[in-house]
Every structure is written in C-alpha cells, then in structure tokens.
Fold Cytidylate kinase.
Amino acid sequence: MKKTVNVAIDGPAGAGKSSVAKKVAERLRFLYIDTGAMYRALTYAAIKKNLDLHDGEALADLLSESELSLVPSPEQTVVYWDGSEVTDDIRTNRVNAQVSLVSSHQAVREAMVGRQQALAAGKDAVLEGRDIGTHVLPQADVKVFLTASVEERARRRHLEQQEKGFPSHFEQLKQEIAKRDELDSTRTHSPLKKAEDATVIDTTAMGMDEVITAIYLLVKEKLAQ
C-alpha cells in the first residue's frame, strides 16, 4: 500500500502560509487543509452570538454543536458554518483581532486538533497553521516554518484587505501583527514555535513562486527517498 504524505507548514500571521500551502498542494495534487480558517470560523460565529471570547469551554461547546466544513475550490477554500458560507466574513479586521484569543483556549485547540487530524488521516495533504508540525501532525513527513518581517507581513495583509474592499490601515496592522505574534508565541497551549526538524524559509524578500518551488522540491526530495 502506498504511504500517504503529510506536509506541515507553520508560521506567524501574514507569512504567506495559506497562499503558499494552497499552491503547493495544487502542484503536488495533494489535499489542502486551511486550519486557520477553522479557528477564524469559530471566532466569527462566537462574535456573532456575543459569546464571551475568554470562555474556552463555551467556545468548545459552540464548535461541538455546530457544523464546520471546508470545501476546496480553484480560488480559495470555501468555508461553511452551519450551512452558510462565511469565507469572506472570517477575514475581517474584527476576526483578525480576536482569533488569537479564541485559539488560545485548550478546550478549543483539543477539539480542533481532532478534526484536523481526521481530515488528514490516510491522505496526501498539506496543512498550514501555527502548531501543525509540533502538535497536530508531529510525525509529518515534511515540516516547513515560514516567516517574514513584521513590516512585510503587514504590507501583504494591507494589500489583501484593500483588494477585498475592507478598510485597512497599515500602521494599525503592524501593531496588530506584532501583538498577535506575542500572543501566539506565549500562549500556554500549543504555542507558535518552529518544530525542531522543520526547514525555515524567510519569505521577506522572496516571491511566492520561489517559496512554492522551494517547498515543492523539499517534498519531492522526501518522496524520492
């Protein structure tokens, strides 16, 4: 039986994980799993229901009683919450500002990790997030840690927001990204950190095609072994 291959791509906010992971998956003909979208969807739903975002148990209960699905498409992963599409709703500044808090709760992460592992089980898959290589799939065949300067990550997020017609302020984004880095890296449960066996790729001065090719070659090298 052919062994399936899992690729873990981790890194801080704005490092290009989603865009790169999707393109790498397409090139390899692997399944792409956007784990960040799962936390964003829960954050959006919790805000909409006016839940206390500091209450991890209530958030985990909301997740358990709701239907969350990811549907691959040529442009992006389409996200549904209880049958309603929320793909654009989960990318707003309000969700950006709160998703680190929601994802910091142990009860939430445990519930999400189980779902993510189930999605990847028995499949050739590329998963991106913040703790894929260290917690979700510690035995992943290829692990990559993408990073970039705060300035560059804010610039990318600023352009993304403008393209989608959302209000965006560059200096505010820089502050929010720096704050999120601190929150993600210092949280108690499954913090953002590089797996010991991950390959670090600093994308600050790299084009997307360069990054995609670098990861693609890492995977092909692994497959050739």
User: Anything to note?
Assistant: The radius of gyration is 17 Å.
